[in-house]
Every structure is written in C-alpha cells, then in structure tokens.
Amino acid sequence: MPRSSLMQRLTAVAVLALVPLQTMADEPVEATLDNGLKVVVKRDARAPVAVSQLWYRVGSIDEVNGRTGLSHLLEHMMFKGTPTVPAGEFSRRIAAAGGQDNAFTSRAYTVYYQLLAAASLPLALQLEADRMRHLDFKDDAFKSELEVVREERRWRVDDQPSAVLYESLYASAFVVSPSRTPVIGWMDDIRHMQPGDLRQWYRQWYVPNNTTLVVVGDVDPQTVIAEAKQRFGGYVAQVLPERRPQLEPTQLGIRRITVKVPSELPYLLMGWKVPRLQKIDDRPPYSLYILSALLAGQDAARLPRNLVRKARIVTSIRTDYELFGRDDGLFTIMAMPATGHGVAEVEQGIRRELTRIARDGVGEAELERVRHQIEASRIYQRDSMQQQAMQIGRLESQGFSWRDENAMSERLLRVGSDDVSAAAQSLIDDNLTVVALQPLQAKGKPPAQAELLQGGNHVR
After folding, report:
1. Which residues belong to the signal peptide in this entry (predicted)?
2. CATH number of 5-232
3. Which of 102, 117, 175, 214 is the most buried (most CB within 10 A)?
4. What does the alpha-carbon distance between residue 383 and residue 29 come to, in Å, rounded to a whole number?
5. Which fold has domain 255-451?
6. Which of 267, 109, 78 is nearest to 183 (CA)?
C-alpha cells in the first residue's frame, strides 16, 4: 500500500480554530448505536467524495511492559484478511473503486481511513465492519509481518537520531506512566510477541463500544447512520479491560541523559512535564499552547529569530505541545546546534528566552500574530475533508466532543500576556528532562542526516 504523504499532513495540522468559517459543510450529525458505537457525520458537498475514518480508542498507553507494540502490530495485521475478504483484498477493492486507504497508530488511538467517491462509501463501511470482528490471520502471516515491523522500527527509530532522542526522552521523563512506551514498541517485546497476544488484544479492544465512526463528505447524514446501523449494529458490546490509573510520581529534580548514536551533528531535547486539557475550563494548557507557538510557531517566532538568525548558535529549532490527549503531557524544545556551538550553549540560550517571557510577558503584536497563524492553519484544515474528520475523531476519541471546538477556540482567544508569562514560569527544572545527543561516526557508513523529526504516529 502506498505510504501517502496525506497522512503526514493530517497529523501536522493545528488543532483549534479562532473564527467560524463559512463553507458548504453542515454541522455534524451524531448518533450512538445500541451497541455503543458512535457515528458522527458531517456533510460537505464541495466535491462528490467522502472520507471514512474508524477510530478505535486503544494505543500504546494501554499496553504493559512485555507486551508493547501490540496496537501498532495489530494495525498491520488488520489488512491480512477475513474469511470473506482475503489478505490484500481490502485495499484492492478500495483501489478498484478509485479510493485510497491506510491506517495509523498513536499513543491514544488507532485509526483506519478511506478516501473515495461518496457513492462508494457503503463499500468502505462493509469492509470495515467485516474486519472489526472477523479478522482471521494465520501464524505464518503473523511471523512475516513481525519481521516487517522489526525492520520498520530499525529505519524509523534506531537509524533516526531525533527519533532515538525522543524515545530516550519519554523513557527517562516517565518512570511509571505508560507514556514512556514507544508507539511501535520495544524491540525485544516485538521479537517475543506471539500470535495469541495479538488475537487477545483484538478481541478485547476492537469492539463497537470502543469505536467512533467519522464520515465527512457529500453524503446524507441519516443515510450514513442507517448504513452504519446495518453494517455494525449486529455486533454486541463487550466489557472493556479495566484502565487502571498509572500516576507518575513527583519528579524530584532535573534529569540529564546523554545518548551516543551516529549523527552528523549533536542535538538537544528539553522536555517538561506539563498538564494537558482535561476540562474545557482548564486555563494552563491554553497558555502553554500559545507559548509553544510564540517560541517557535513560525520563522518570526522568538527562538528562530533570536537563536537561529541573530545569535546563530542553532541551525534549526522547534517546540511541541499537544493540547489534549489521554497520555501524560510534555512541553518539548528540540534544537540542532550550529557548527562550533555546543548543546550547553544552546540550552542557556533557550533558558534566556524563557526567562524573558516569564519576567516581561509578551506584546500584543506577538499574540495577535499567533492568533492569525492558528486561524490560517484552521482555514487550511477546513478546506480538507480529511482534516475535518481528523479534528472530529481526535476530540471524540480523547474525552471531548466535536461540539467543544468553539469553546476551546474562545478560550485560546482570551490568553493574554500574563497567562503566557505564567506558562513560562511553570517550566521549572524539577519537571525537566534534558537529553543531549553526542554524535558518533558509524563504522562503514556515513552518519545519519540531521533532521528535526517528531516521534508519534506510525503509519502502516
């Protein structure tokens, strides 16, 4: 199956809008089937196509030590066939209808999606309903795909300096929380995984009451809901495994880690434990989101302007903060020092910028620039049916509703200079983990190219 660049754009888009946008899209219509499966349909008649996304609320944070990587490997195996749809036939039928399909796994959910002509939507729902409860893979197919995933881990993680850095950060910042688990799993767990482990995972989590179906396109919502009821309504809700809280103990001081891997340049990655949005009225997460954008949201932001172009001590720098999610949150800053400059100097430069914001706040012009930036990203999102579906699915799969979007946007608009200053002040050393990459020259091959990659989702 093609590894579409479309999925990369899906996961990179901004989360929130600042203003309502006038389009031909209607308000979503939702329904919950008797078995607990939720259906959300949004009509967008600008083109005779539809996007179907099936969101299972299970990911790497639901796994335990010794059984990591199950969600990601199951995503692969979901294309290995059922008694009525042989291996490879799912994608072949979608392609024959002129569509595209793929899937991805994250820490909090696993998503299967199709983009196809609106008239062919019933085909996608029929195929998804079939493999929700009738997956039938052979042990030989399992062993073969296990090798595929091991190789995927090698080239996506082990051979990518920034991916190694992110994996080391999460494994060091968290000691109890399942957020420390990589989405793709630890190599030794992958190596020792058994077919029975995966079949049990499938039976436990791939049930209607753990699933949201999102459809956006030139469709009639009530017709889609009726079709979903016909395809999925016969499945019985199951008791889900207990999700016990795994609370992270209080960090008692800064943690510093050095990793040595082949690389052209050193890297610096700083990560602070921070809250995520749990309730609409929580204020700190909105301020952290704005702080991230102010620091490195675009070329005019603080860190690129002052450390890349003025001081010239880094070649590139980025920040990352996810507003909401089922896992524990980190506020991260990642930088590549320029030639002749070390990670210690770069860290001090970052700290100076944070101190200025903590002490002086930010100007209204800076805040307004960030608001326009988020608005522009949202306009781009609304121009894509895929992006609209992604926004609905993410909200619905992480404890919120698609109806919460406007309320979140209004609260972002109210973030002021004092709020951003407080967010910067909250990034204290007692919640900080610093990972420095010391480059090595690989024997027999050139070092990996230096890139600022973001760990996270894994596409099949």
Report:
1. 1-25
2. 3.30.830.10
3. 214
4. 19
5. Cytochrome Bc1 Complex; Chain A, domain 1 (3.30.830)
6. 109
pLDDT of residue 383: 87
DSSP 82: -
Tell me the catalytic residues: 75
Instruction: Show the tokens assigned to 292.
Output: 């991230």
* pLDDT score recorded for residue 447: 47
The pLDDT value recorded for residue 445 is 52
Ranges in the chain annotated CATH 3.30.830.10: 5-232, 255-451
* Residue ranges of the chain whose pLDDT lies below 70: 1-25, 442-460
Contact status, residue 268 vs residue 434, Cβ threshold 8 Å = yes
Contact criterion met (CB below 8 Å) for 390 and 212: no
Q: Are 433 and 169 in contact (CB under 8 A)?
A: yes
pLDDT at site 427: 98
Are the beta carbons of 316 and 336 closer than 8 angstroms? yes
Q: Which one, of 337, 357, 370, lies nearest residue 424 by Cα?
A: 357
Task: Please give the helix or strand (H or E) that residue 163 lies within, else none.
Answer: helix 161-173
